[in-house]
Each structure stands twice: as structure tokens, then as C-alpha cells.
Predict the 3D structure of the following.
Amino acid sequence: MNGPGSTGTAPAAAAPATDPGAALHLRVEDVTYAVAGRPLVDGVTLEARPGESVGIVGPNGSGKTTLLRCVQGVLRPVSGRVLHDGADTARLSVKERARRVAAVPQDSGGGFGLTVRQVVAMGRSPHKRFWEGDTARDAAYVHEALADTGGAALADRPFDELSGGEKQRVLLARALVQRPALLALDEPTNHLDVRHQLDLLTLVRALPATSLLVLHDLNLAAYFCDRLYVLAEGRLVADGTPEEVLTEELLAEVYGVRAEVRVHPATGAPTVVYLPPAAPPTVRRAVPPTAAEGFTTGATEGAR
Amino acid sequence: MSAHPADPPAAPPGFTARAVRAARTGRGTVVFCCLGLVALALSVAPAITIGQAGIAAGDVWRVVAERLGGAESGLSPLREGIVWELRLPRALLAAVCGAGLALCGAVLQSLLRNPLADPFVLGVSSGASTGAVAVVVLGVGGGALSLSAGAFAGAVLSFGLVLLLAHTSGGTTDRVLLSGVAAMQLFSALTSFIVFTSADAEQTRGVLFWLLGSLGTAGWGEVALGAGVLFAVLAVCLCHAPALDAFTFGQEAAAALGVAVRRVRLTLLLATALLTAVLVSSAGAIGFVGLVLPHAARALTGPAHRRLLPVTALVGAVFLVWVDTAARTLLDPRELPVGVATSLVGVPAFVVVLHRGRRATGRVPA
């Protein structure tokens, strides 16, 4: 896999083999999801064309993960529709959906001692008939996915003993062997070092599958995503190419931060540099001098 | 990440060896199960020979052969009766109970993502106790209900309450667990309440003995019922083995892998509750088998459920056959409730599991 920095253009790494033409057109239409009457996602409409990498960004609690889970079909929206190539997904069976959509979740606990190889092989289960064992073809997929994600050396280790970053890569491998037409990733770069962040996103971009990513790092989002959607308090506040979306005004409005946005000459992508707040709040001591300090002073004075 | 050639590895190195190993996994399960069955047969036969009336291993086979249509055993009717009417059904019921409880424990631990889950976590056993006490002490049913029938009714009632509580509180896995704990507390309290307010000493002793697990009343009827339900539930669980693997990652991950979470969870909860209810109503609440043995089996086979489930069942069967033999002979002529014996063995084993868990991960998986 090539690091994106070395090419100087949009990343174009070797595409791992996935079923050709296996990318779907995702359309999210006016989706609302609410808990106890409070909307977490409020009337969001979003589109990802076949093969595109689309990023969802926004501050904490803006509904990014909830929206992603609605797209995955794990949550059923209160209203609105999720369409695959124009067809409503509400009627898909869980298994049919799992053959099309794979998820790389944020929380990666579990496994109960299963080896990495077994965990990745689980990704084949949506494609299996009843009581069908693992075939040589499955083993090849698993091997290939682990090689692609840099997890080949982990294959025989117990999953629950891996580090956070290693788990993240194994879960991506599991999503890859699902051969999805749509890949939903929730902060996939969490726990990863810089090198692995770049490698993972390069790989995702190179996949034929359409991908929808929740990302925190705006610079990574700007570089790796074809288009971005910005959420704030469950609502869509901006969308478009990274150049259109990532402006100093938007960062001030949505995140409440001062930033400078420039197109970086080496990457051609907008680059955000955060600036210190205009008027730094004066740091005051919230806690008064401790009683001990007071007594000491008093005692000294008294003795004097 | 290693540099990776542009074309995907069509035939990755070591791939054939891996495919062979994958094919062997299925064969390995068969080998494991055959070994387990042999071990079970080799446990049941000697277990029958041990006891007050001395019976040789050869006698056991002769009696079984005669009953299955072979030649006369040449034993006295009394000794034949001891083998065929007392010890054989008892050993077989021990095997069925051990297998069933261990199986339920393994399934529930994975399903509820809790290594401390056991068959009684759904409140089934405490419900059964209340039902049994209601029949024996309060005379519910007016003598028409047997202790077993009362226990079964109590178990079903309690599990129904757990499902209802879990459903009304959101239906997630942790809700099932919490509801089970709540039901367990409620029915234990009810049992104690009934015993303390109305039972005389002899009744109390009888009920207590049953509550602690007793295979002494085993007959062929219990064995047939238990074995029938056991094999049906084992089949259901094996069908859901890949789903159980996925469940260890939580319900969302399972759903993303194509598991119909609600349906599978309900199916497995119903199956395990039914099996537990049948076993508890014929042999009382035998503790620790369902908690500890799945962990022992995991250490033997690894955590993948296709292999784990049958092996757990066999390990449980062998374990309980031996523990019951010890329970009925160690304090001869008195008998130790088998639940007491399993706990005496189970607690130290449980401590070992806890310590291993702490060493391996530093925490109990949530």
C-alpha cells in the first residue's frame, strides 16, 4: 500500500480485489431518529454515489454515529428512508443487508478468546448457506484481507488481547471479507498511529465499494473524502466537496473554534490549522486557598 | 502494514495448509465428540458398579444386553433391578443434567456476553423452587400436581416474568440479565417466605434436599424426557453456533454480520429456559455445572461454538456422572445432595477461572 503523502495527488493505491461493480448508490432521504421524543438525527438527506468516499463530520453529540447506524440498518429511523440503488432497505432481511453493508464499529470489545483468523472469518457468515463450513475460498479471503490491513502477523492471536489499533485493523479486515457494496466506518482511525491512519484510509478509498465514514480529524476527512456532510445537533448544516465545506466561517459557527484553512500545495486538499481562541478566557482558581493554608497563616500570625 | 503487491494474492503462501486446517476443524469436532462419548460410556459403566450392593462391570453390560433383547443376565431380580431401575437411570439422568446445564451455561454466557452467566440466571431455578414449595408445602393443586409439575410451572412463570421485564425495559441483552437477577431474588424470597411461614421441619428438610439437587428419584421417564429435550435444544443451539460467535461481539456487531438479533436471542433464551426447566423439575437446582464447565470446555476446544457446544455438553455429562457417584457413596449410607457436591468441586474451579481471567485480560469482559 502506498502512503498518500508520497504520491502528491489524490491517493490511488492498489485496489484489493473485491467483487467487480460491487458498489451501491446510497441515498438517505429525510431520515429522523429520536429517543424519547428528542431527535438525535433530524431530517438528514445524504447521498453517496457508487465508489465514493463520503465523510460525516461534526462536533461531539451531533448525531454522526446515530446517522451511520441508521444507514447500517441497526437502528430503524422514526421517519425517512434509506435507499440502496433506489430501493428501500427497510424490507431487506438482516442477512441480505449484511451481504451489502459492512460496518467497522467504534466499540471493539468481545471475542471471548476467538483468534483473529476466526474473528475475520465471521465476516463470511452472511454469504453462507445454513450450516455451511469455511471453504478454501473463505480462507483465501481472510488471508487477503488480513494482508491488506496489515494484520497478517496477528492471525493466530486471540482477538481480545490485541491493542486498540490492532483490533481496529482486524475489524476492518472482517468488514472486507464481507465483500460489501457499502462500507460504514465509525471513526476508523481511533486508536491508530499516524501511519496506520493513512494506510487504512488509503485502503478504504481504493476499495470499489462506496464508503461512508464518520471522522473527527478534519484534515484526514478533507484529504480522503470526495464529499463531506457536516452535522450539528442532529441537523445537516453543510455539504459539498471538502473545499466547499471546510471554511473558516463554518468552523467558527459549528465547532466554535478559530482556524485558518489553506489549500496545501502538496496534497491539493484544504488543510485546517487551529488557532488559539481570540480572547483566551482568564484561568481563575475556582478553589479558594485550602483550610490548611489559612490555618498556617493564622497560626503564624497568632504566634507573632 | 507490509507493502503489498498491486495484484491480490490469488494463491497466498501457506494457503493450502490453511484450507486443510479449516477442513480439519470439522473433523476435529467429530474426533472430540467421539472421545467424549467414549469417556461418557467409560464413566457411566463404572459409576453403576460403585455403591452398597457390589455389582461388577460385566453385570452391567449383561443386564443392559438382556433388556435390549439379548441373553438372560443370570443375575438375581434384585440385583438386576438395582442396575436397571436404580443406578442406570440415575447415571443417565446425571449425564443428561450435566450435559444440559453445561450447554445452557455456554449458550447464555455468549448470548448475554457475561462469563458469569449460568442456566439459572434467567430465574428458572428459583421459579422452580417456588413452584415446588407451593405444591409440597402449601398443597397447591390439591395433590393432583407432582413436585416436578409444580417446579416446571414455577420455572415457566418465572421465565415469563423475566421476558416480560426485559421486553418492557428495552429488550437489550443487559436488560435480560438484570431482569433475570430480579426474578431470581423475588422467587428466592418467595420460597423462603413460604418455607418459614408454613413448613414443618420434615417438609422443610425434604424441600431443601430437593432444592439442592437430587438425582435419587431418577426413573426412565425423567431420563427419556430430559434426553429428548436435551437433544432438541442441542440441535437448535448448534444451528445458531455462528450467530453465537457473532453475539460475543455484542448485538450490534451481530446484526452487522447478518444475525437476526431479536429472533435468535428469543429462540435461544426459550430453548435454554425450556431445557433448564425440564432438568430442574426432575433433579432440582444443581448449581455450578452450568457456570464452570463451559469455561473448562473453552480451555479444551477454544471458543468457537460449533465445537464448543457439543464438547461442553459431553464434559458436563461426564462431570456430573462422577460427582453424583461421589455424592451418593462418600457419606454412605447417607447421601449428599448432588448440588452440594458440585459446589464443593465447583467453587475452587470457579476461583481458578476468575484468576485466569484476571491474568489474561485484567478485567472481566463486559
Remarks:
- Chain A touches chain B through 55 residues (CB under 8 Å).
- Chain A has one domain: 4-280.
